[in-house]
Design a protein that fits this description.
The complex is a heterodimer of chains A (about 260) and B (about 270). Chain A is about 70% helix and about 0% strand. In chain A, a hairpin with a 2-residue loop joins strand 1 and strand 2. The two termini of chain A are about 35 Å apart. The model of chain A has no long low-confidence stretch (mean pLDDT about 80). Chain B has about 270 residues and is α/β, with parallel strands linked by helices. In chain B, strand 1 and strand 2 form a beta hairpin. The longest helix of chain B is centred in the C-terminal third of the chain and has 18 residues. Chain B is globular, with a radius of gyration of 20 Å. The relative contact order of chain B is 0.16. Classes of the chains: A mainly alpha (about 260), B alpha/beta (about 270). The structure holds adenosine-5'-triphosphate (ATP) and magnesium ion.
Chain lengths: ~260, ~270
């Protein structure tokens, strides 16, 4: 794990350095990305300011759910989002090059072509969370869950990226399918799940443990009843879900690698 | 150092046929029941016509492709299971593709490799000095890789593959597209590497000059099968009276090729 983080940081530093060789365009990109994120935050605040309540939750509560899921998602996107493009790397043969180095190919893929724009997304979610937190007055006895749920969410999203990446070993031309899963999941978890139908929520809770990303632990942090009356223990299930999903992801990725065919030239 | 035992690799390719919805699967046997051994310190040329299975063999040796049957050991490791461990002990050069980072200056690429391969700083400095002198890279170190010419890039790639001082060096068409002078430089370097450091070298090529000037041993494969394994002189002797090695190889390739209409040759890209 630590080696993987080191590898990722080394590669990202190299990409940033390469980008910094063109200071003007680098600065433009950064400014542009922060402007866009700023506008995004403004848009969200405007939307939220017209809502007093969403699915039985107050505005700061909604922002809390949005912010925690958003931070997890943005971190995972930063770390592994490029896995959506695995198909293109396979077709161009660039994936072969990643496989000859003594470090994880998944991590290399995640760090490749790192763009500072992804940091903007993270900043955006963090701002929403930062606005929500002081208004909620969460006691320390429950606040410990916040960093843990963000970490678990990060692991869960990264695992989903690894699984959809692994699928691309089989379906080399299916990047859209994979983006639908990852970005779709990112969108879905950003609102209290009670705005969706009950069946969907049950499905989400048990099939893809996306609900663990922010919904269930958020109920705990916010001290709220589950509108759907699911067992209380589920609120603490995020680490287990993260663990199981990352094991599944590791298996899927390895199975995918064994089926890897490279290219004919 | 390298051991193959009954190794096969097939690819299932699907063709969409006209007027049919389902695609027909066809099995391509890229490598069939291949067995050979390469001892430490050998310099081996791996020869064969286009589509013979050379690149497929190389990719199995370095763990990129998993064989469909058989057993492979490189430096005592099973490449597809211990790929990252093996990566520290072998160097790989693809003539068609760079392993350097396109946007980084050559020396940043090397430095990044050093960190990923966890090469000790002092050892790395000595190694880099030696390699950049022998491969004449001194003036190129601060040039971004994308601005290097093919020959310069190839020398950079060879240096990058050797920074961690591997026991085995595997090269897939390292002299492709190089001019006479660059070719001579690369050959002289590889010969020195093998003679002085005892690095085991396996290379594929379509340039018989590489074979004649470098390889004590030649393996020739065709349609995924080993057709010849011996010294260059023995290879020449397989065709009595022929003068040049080109003629000998051309004869073997033609003699073993099936009628073109049955199986069109596969050219990359
Ligand atoms: N990823 C792949 N998918 C399908 N078929 C493949 C794949 N890779 C290789 N092949 C097939 O396997 C056979 C051997 O290919 P390989 O690339 O090993 O040949 P080669 O000896 O390196 O040829 P060349 O001299 O042209 O580089 C060819 O028929 C090729 O079409
Ligand atoms: Mg080839």
């Amino acid at each position: 794990m630590l080696t993987d983080l080191r590898t990722w940081l080394l590669l990202v530093r190299a990409w940033l350095r390469a980008a910094a060789q063109y200071p003007a365009s680098f600065a433009l990109l950064m400014t542009g990305s922060f402007l866009v994120s700023g506008l995004d935050v403004a848009a969200i605040l405007v939307i939220f300011s017209h809502v007093r309540e969403l699915g039985g939750f107050t505005l700061p509560e909604v922002m809390f759910v949005y912010g925690t899921a958003g931070v997890s998602f943005a971190l995972a996107n930063l770390f592994a989002g490029n896995a959506d493009n695995l198909g293109a790397y396979i077709r161009s043969g660039d994936f072969d090059v990643m496989l000859i180095r003594p470090v994880s190919a998944f991590v290399q893929l995640g760090a490749d072509r790192f763009s500072p724009q992804k940091v903007g997304r993270l900043a955006q979610a963090a701002v929403v969370l930062a606005i929500a937190l002081p208004q909620l007055g969460i006691p320390w006895s429950r606040a410990w869950m916040i960093p843990l749920m963000i970490l678990c969410g990060f692991v869960i999203f990264t695992a989903i990226w690894a699984i959809t990446g692994a699928l691309q070993f089989l379906l080399v031309d299916a990047p859209e399918v994979s983006a639908a899963f990852t970005f779709g999941g990112g969108q879905l978890t950003q609102y209290p799940l009670s705005v969706y139908g009950a069946d969907l929520v049950r499905g989400v809770t048990f099939i893809v443990p996306l609900a663990f990303v922010s919904w269930q632990p958020a109920l705990y942090v916010l001290g709220r009843e589950d509108p759907l009356g699911l067992p209380y223990a589920l609120r603490f299930a995020a680490p287990a879900a993260a663990l199981i999903l990352s094991l599944l992801a590791a298996l899927a990725w390895r199975a995918g690698l064994r089926r890897y065919r490279s290219t004919g030239s | 150092m390298i051991e193959l035992d009954g190794v096969s690799r097939t690819f299932t390719v699907r063709h969409r046929e006209r007027g049919r919805l389902r695609r027909r699967a066809q099995v391509v046997e890229a490598v069939r029941d291949l067995s050979f051994r390469v001892e430490a310190g050998e310099f081996v040329g791996y020869l064969g016509p286009n589509g013979a299975g050379k690149s497929t063999t190389i990719k199995m040796l370095i763990g990129i492709l998993t064989p469909t049957a058989g057993r492979i050991r490189v430096a005592g490791l099973d490449p597809s299971r211990r790929r990252t461990a093996l990566a520290r002990r072998i160097g790989v050069v693809f003539g068609q593709r760079t392993t350097l980072w396109w946007d980084l200056p050559l020396k940043d690429s090397f430095e990044l490799s050093r960190l990923l391969y966890k090469v000790d700083r002092e050892q790395y400095r000595r190694r880099l000095d030696e390699l950049s002198e022998r491969l004449d890279l001194g003036g190129l170190l601060s040039t971004p890789v994308r601005q290097l010419s093919l020959g310069q890039r190839m020398r950079g790639d060879i240096a990058a593959a050797l920074l961690h001082d591997p026991d085995v060096l595997v090269l897939d068409e390292p002299t492709i597209g190089l001019d006479v002078v660059s070719k001579a430089a690369v050959r002289a370097f590889l010969r020195g590497l093998n003679a002085e450091r005892g690095t085991t070298v396996l290379l594929t090529t379509h340039d018989l000059g590489d074979i004649e000037r470098l390889c004590r041993r030649v393996m020739l494969i065709d349609h995924g099968r080993l057709g010849f394994d011996g010294t260059v002189d023995e290879l020449r002797a397989t065709v009595p009276g022929e003068a040049s090695i080109e003629d000998v190889v051309a004869r073997i390739y033609l003699g073993s090729a099936p009628a073109p209409s049955l199986e069109p040759p596969n050219y990359p890209q």
